[in-house]
Design a protein that fits this description.
Elements (H helix, E strand, L loop, with lengths): L3 E11 L7 H4 L21 E2 L6 E2 L2 E2 L1 H11 L1 H22 L4 E11 L3 E5 L2 E5 L4 E13 L3 H68 L4 H36 L8 E2 L12 H11 L1 H25 L1 E11 L8 E10 L7 H67 L5 H36 L20 H15 L13
Parallel strand pairs: 4-9
Antiparallel strand pairs: 1-5, 2-3, 5-8, 6-7, 8-10, 10-11
Helix pairs in contact: 2-4, 3-4, 4-5, 4-7, 4-9, 6-8, 7-8, 8-9, 8-10
Length: about 500
């Protein structure tokens, strides 16, 4: 009885790979992918974060919050993964341009003699192990630019993913700034509401004292009590907003939603000194969304060219080298060369459909670019207008607070002297409360608008909104520009003319 044991193996190697490290480095893009920002330094009171994230600072400035979000935000992480996928696609497409090398071998172990019958007689063959080995090199010769265009399309798609990553980072920075300022604004609004509540509590006491003295009726006390209860309810509503807004900020930072967090920062009050048209042109040149869309057009064009090349055919070469130790013949080496030309003749309309689809995808990408450019112009103009108007609102609101504060003081004096009703005092207090809220809202809206303007311009999301401010042509000094801004405030709100000197420098 004979028993045969066969061992076979197959190995594949990719030619052109310098080392395994190339799998991580890959083809170097024209613009390097922005590295993840360094994690926020630990401080006293740090809290544990998610697995692998390290401790997270409890107290954050706006700048630190933006840095942490760019390091841990899940949307940003997904954008980085898309860049990595684009790199892998580029490497795979490049491999089609290079030869492929494969080797194959077979080893047979024989442990019994074999008998071969031939011409009525038999021949006995002693046990002998046999082996075969072959090496194959397959390479493209000509494919009408198919593989080259596919590679270039993958490169452009990778660049587009990098630009999209920068756009996501800018959006995240703007969202984090807005969320952090929402927390700060709510906390400051609570202080304003608490101050109003205390003022109305004092008004209730004054009305009760007047009632005891017989100067007013019980209606004045009831009115003051109703206003006091309303102010208390306003404060309670604002306090209930704080944990919700902190959860929203934690989500943007990539933290557990319920984790403790405090924002320690203050809004900036410097005047904007930009001009609209240069900002629009800058945005059209630097916005990563537009760059990604334009790269998408270039990638679609390359894809169309590759599709056309694919339908024209391909010429490939194949070189094979074989050797063995067959005992029935002298060991010999054999080399063969094979030339293959594959031309599709009839595809049932699939070839036309594929080319037409690629052409439609190119036209769609061009439409996206035109639409995006129009949207960017609108976004920049709106962000610029919001920043300028919010800054003007600050001066107007500050002036209103000063006037209403004086009005409340006068009305209380009149009330104590019996020359004003409690309704007049309460109305003046309500106006003061509204003016204070407007000042808080204008202050934080201005800083949020500045960060939105940074995003709309396409600037680095980690930069100071004021760091890259450019003085408009014809402006002698920042002081002269500020004077022009004050004049604009006077025209917008004549009653704020006396407060123009308080415009922050």
């Amino acid at each position: 009885m004979r028993r045969y044991t066969t061992y076979s193996f197959a190995l594949a190697m990719l030619a052109g790979c310098a080392s395994n490290r190339d799998d991580l480095a890959g083809w170097a893009p024209d613009e390097p992918v922005p590295a993840a920002p360094a994690p926020v330094e630990d401080r006293p009171g740090d809290v544990p974060g998610e697995a692998g994230a390290g401790p997270l600072a409890r107290e954050l400035t706006i700048e630190a919050a933006v840095t942490e979000a760019l390091a841990h935000n899940r949307v940003v992480q997904q954008a980085r993964l898309n860049v990595a996928i684009g790199m892998d696609n580029t490497r795979e497409a490049r491999a089609a341009l290079l030869p492929t090398v494969s080797v194959q071998g077979t080893y047979n172990a024989v442990d019994q003699a074999r008998t071969i019958v031939s011409g009525g007689g038999s021949i006995s063959v002693s046990p002998a192990d046999t082996w075969t080995f072959s090496a194959v090199v397959d390479f493209p010769i000509f494919a009408f630019g198919r593989h080259l265009n596919t590679w270039r399309a993958a490169q452009l798609a990778q660049h587009g993913a990098e630009a999209t990553q920068r756009a996501v980072e800018a959006d995240t920075a703007a969202a984090v700034t807005a969320a952090a300022f929402d927390v700060l604004e709510t906390i400051q609004a609570i202080d304003v509401a608490r101050s109003n509540e205390e003022a109305l509590a004092q008004q209730v006491k004054d009305a009760q004292a007047q009632l005891d003295a017989g100067s007013v009726t019980k209606v004045a006390v009831l009115e003051a009590s109703v206003e006091h209860d309303s102010a208390k309810r306003t404060r309670e509503k604002l306090e209930s907003l704080v944990p919700v807004r902190k959860m929203a900020l934690n989500k943007l930072l990539g933290r557990p939603a319920g984790g403790p967090i405090e924002v320690e920062d203050a809004p900036d009050m410097r005047a904007p000194i930009w001009q609209l048209e240069p900002l629009v042109e800058e945005a059209l040149d630097t916005r990563p969304e537009i760059r990604a869309a334009r790269l998408g057009v270039a990638s679609a064009q390359r894809t169309l060219d590759a599709t056309i090349g694919q339908e024209l055919g391909e010429l490939r070469g194949n070189v094979t080298w074989d050797t063995d130790d067959n005992p029935f013949r002298a060991p010999s080496d054999e080399m063969t060369f094979l030339l293959t030309f594959d031309v599709p003749v009839f595809t049932g309309g699939a070839r036309t459909a594929r080319i037409r689809r690629a052409r439609h995808q190119l036209e769609s990408a061009e439409v996206v670019v035109r639409d995006l450019e129009a949207n960017v112009r609108t976004e920049v103009a709106e962000a610029y207008r919001s920043a300028v108007e919010a800054f003007r609102d600050i001066a107007v609101a500050r002036s209103a607070v000063e006037r209403q504060d004086e009005s409340v003081r006068i009305q209380r004096e009149k009330f104590k002297n019996g020359r004003a009703t409690s309704r007049e005092v309460l109305d003046s207090v309500a106006l003061l409360r509204n003016a204070r809220f407007e000042l808080v809202n204008a202050t934080y809206s201005y800083n949020v608008a500045l960060r939105e303007l940074v995003r709309a311009r396409g600037s680095d999301p980690r930069s100071d909104p004021f760091a890259e401010a450019k003085a408009p042509s014809g402006a002698a000094t920042p002081g002269s520009l500020e004077g022009a801004l004050e004049e604009a405030i006077r025209r917008a709100a004549p009653e704020a003319e006396g407060a123009a000197g308080d415009v922050p420098k």
